[in-house]
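User: My instructor asked us to take a sequence, write out its structure as tokens, and then describe one feature of it. I'm not sure where to start. Here is the sequence I was given:
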Amino acid sequence: MDTDRIQLAEAFLFTEGGSLTIRKLSALLKVKESELPTLLDQLSVKLEDRGLTLIKTDTEVSLVVSPNASEVVRATYAHELERDIGEAGLEVLAVVLYRGPSTRAQIDYIRGVNTSSTIRNLLARGLLERAGNPDDGREYLYRPTVELLAHLGVRDMKELPEHEKLAGELALFEKTKDAGPENEYGSTN
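Assistant: Let's start with the prediction itself. The structure tokens for your sequence are:
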């Protein structure tokens, strides 16, 4: 039994907070894709009678709440989801709505704080969706869901109030911040 790799697989799946492709998990563990099913089977056995379980498809694997714990967890989070999304949630939604599909790093950069728990909350509520980033397979893009746009009463993000102006201001903010302090105070050399 390859205990170190099993622990690493569990850690990668936990930190991902969602599914990982077989290809990506194999790369992270530095094993051949053909070796991964055995490791995942061993992890499944290790997780028996615990609060988590493994779900596998031909292409993806995910660490999820076990069936035994899911009802209690769902009931607890149902109460949480009834609460207001708060200022942080509104700010993340505004960034994604006015900037367009964004990585977590881009959202964090604009807000100036870590947004992982806020994004997780918005994903759970069905306000954001996560998709692979075609420019970088190591990260995801977050975009508004159709349900969010419907709730806001718009058919597309360009119908949002002052969309063009605010999208331009966000782009300028990112461009100015990317230029660094030398842009504002002259050369740093």
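For the description part of your assignment, you could build on this observation: The beta strands are 20-21, 52-56, 60-65, 128-132, 140-144. Try explaining in your own words what that tells you about the chain.
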